[in-house]
């Protein structure tokens, strides 16, 4: 710091206050040949990466040019025309195989270049997923884009130190930024994410009842379709399943689809169906399928549950030290206890002693039944803890249409909605939303969107006519 002495206008004296020292970095002059070599290496690496990721598109560009240079422009045009004609014939004669091997690959290249890579930088900046340090901008890396028949799948490498939660919180920003109706964020390899952008909804229309299985099915049964069009198999053996949804959300579709798929196994004596129907609305229509193992009155429901507990405990005593896991047989069948609107037996039951008996039996079945071949499949309208205190004893959960966003995490667990389980946004119109739900399994925290098939009254009457009493077992 400089200061002037009084009366002295000619000299400056440096004060004793310490001054800051500025260091200038040493400027290194890189030889031009090294700079050019580095640029050349980067260009070759970029070209090789492009050829590796998009071989079909690169061949479609380079082959005609090479033919024109080597054989003349006429030959260079004839070959591409022949290829286009062959592909057109393939497209109309075998559309499924053409779409799988060519159509989806071309679409992936197109949306990569025209949609995602073109808008990547502005979308990352505006959504707050890019970072600025000093004068430099850091962007997450767009790794790869693939297409399924219903969605674009974008694989991304996150910035170092970035969390997946930051992407999940900005899923709406990403969907709007790339002009897609929705974006779901799922975890990939360490440091990587998978962004799924649906293009069309295969679950927007009702699915008719699935055909009866040709043979007995026990472990997993067909319920409906996933959003990618693949069949969905619901695991029942070795777990317990809770289906939660508002009135009219389609809980009956899940219950009846499971019953329908289990009927051939029940006819073979490998499955027993025990039904509790306190509302007298859903399962009563096919009560002849369950025979004596059907109850509607709360007192009868308590007795039926206690009978199931007794059978389970007798089987557990026989298995002790002999069998480690249950294998369905005619002597020891797989027992499925189906409860429609379990809250009628727990929260809304006015008889305190009866409520305690029911809760105790359900708790015993859900804590001890899996290993010896007992499964509880329960439907619930109100997912609050005070309505069903044993909610967490169900390893696998299904959230149909719910009234509030907070209810999604109540059913599927913390963070499920942030992972894409938007059950509160499912349409309330039965034709488009009934039976649509998000499944979260014990073994996989990622929610899967599924629609259960609609089993009509006509289908149930036909099932009763063919299989009356098989669910009762022996």
Automatic annotation (TrEMBL):
Gene3D superfamilies named in the record: P-loop containing nucleotide triphosphate hydrolases
FtsK domain residues: 229-409
Residues binding ATP, per UniProt: 245-252
Record field: transmembrane: 26-45, 57-78
Keywords: ATP-binding, Membrane, Nucleotide-binding, Transmembrane, Transmembrane helix
Family matches, as InterPro entries: FtsK/SpoIIIE/SftA, FtsK_dom, P-loop_NTPase
Protein name as it appears in the record: FtsK/SpoIIIE domain-containing protein
């Amino acid at each position: 710091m400089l200061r002037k002495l009084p009366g002295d206008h000619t000299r400056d004296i440096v004060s004793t206050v310490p001054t800051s020292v500025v260091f200038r970095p040493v400027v290194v002059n890189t030889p031009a040949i090294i700079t050019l070599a580095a640029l050349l290496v980067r260009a070759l690496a970029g070209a090789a990466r492009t050829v590796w990721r998009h071989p079909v598109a690169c061949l479609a560009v380079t082959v005609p040019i090479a033919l024109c240079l080597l054989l003349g422009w006429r030959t260079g045009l004839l070959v591409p025309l022949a290829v286009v004609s062959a592909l057109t014939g393939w497209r109309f004669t075998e559309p499924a195989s053409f779409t799988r091997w060519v159509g989806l690959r071309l679409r992936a290249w197109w949306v990569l270049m025209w949609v995602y890579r073109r808008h990547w930088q502005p979308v990352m900046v505006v959504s707050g997923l890019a970072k600025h340090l000093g004068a430099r901008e850091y962007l997450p890396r767009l790794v790869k884009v693939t297409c399924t028949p219903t969605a674009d799948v974008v694989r991304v490498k996150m910035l170092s130190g970035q969390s997946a939660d930051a992407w999940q919180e900005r899923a709406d920003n990403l969907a709007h930024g790339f002009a897609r109706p929705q974006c779901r964020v799922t975890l990939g390899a360490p440091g990587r994410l998978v962004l799924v952008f649906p293009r069309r909804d295969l679950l927007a229309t009702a699915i008719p009842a699935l055909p009866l299985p040709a043979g007995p099915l026990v472990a997993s049964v067909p319920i409906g379709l996933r959003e990618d069009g693949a069949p969905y198999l619901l695991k029942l053996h070795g777990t317990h399943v809770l289906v939660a949804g508002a009135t009219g959300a389609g809980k009956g579709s899940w219950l009846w689809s499971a019953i329908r798929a289990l009927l051939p196994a029940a006819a073979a004596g490998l499955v027993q169906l025990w039904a509790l129907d306190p509302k007298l609305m859903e399962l009563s229509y096919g009560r002849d399928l369950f025979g004596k193992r059907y109850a509607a009155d709360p007192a009868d429901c308590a007795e039926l549950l206690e009978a199931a507990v007794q059978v389970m405990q007798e089987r557990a005593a026989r298995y002790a030290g002999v069998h480690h896991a249950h294998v369905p047989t005619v002597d020891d069948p797989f027992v499925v206890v189906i409860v429609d609107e379990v809250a009628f037996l727990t929260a809304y039951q006015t008889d305190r002693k009866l409520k305690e008996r029911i809760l105790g039996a359900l708790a015993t079945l859900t804590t001890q039944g899996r290993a010896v071949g007992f499964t509880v499949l329960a439907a619930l309208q109100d997912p609050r803890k005070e309505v069903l205190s044993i909610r967490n004893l169900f390893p696998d959960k299904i959230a149909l249409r719910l009234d509030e966003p907070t209810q999604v995490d109540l059913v599927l667990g913390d963070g499920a909605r942030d992972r894409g389980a938007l059950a509160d946004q499912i349409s309330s119109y039965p034709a488009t939303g009934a039976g649509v739900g998000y499944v979260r399994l014990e073994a996989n925290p990622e929610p899967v969107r599924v629609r259960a098939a609609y089993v009509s009254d006509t289908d149930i009457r036909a099932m009763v006519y063919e299989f009356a009493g098989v669910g009762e077992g022996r």
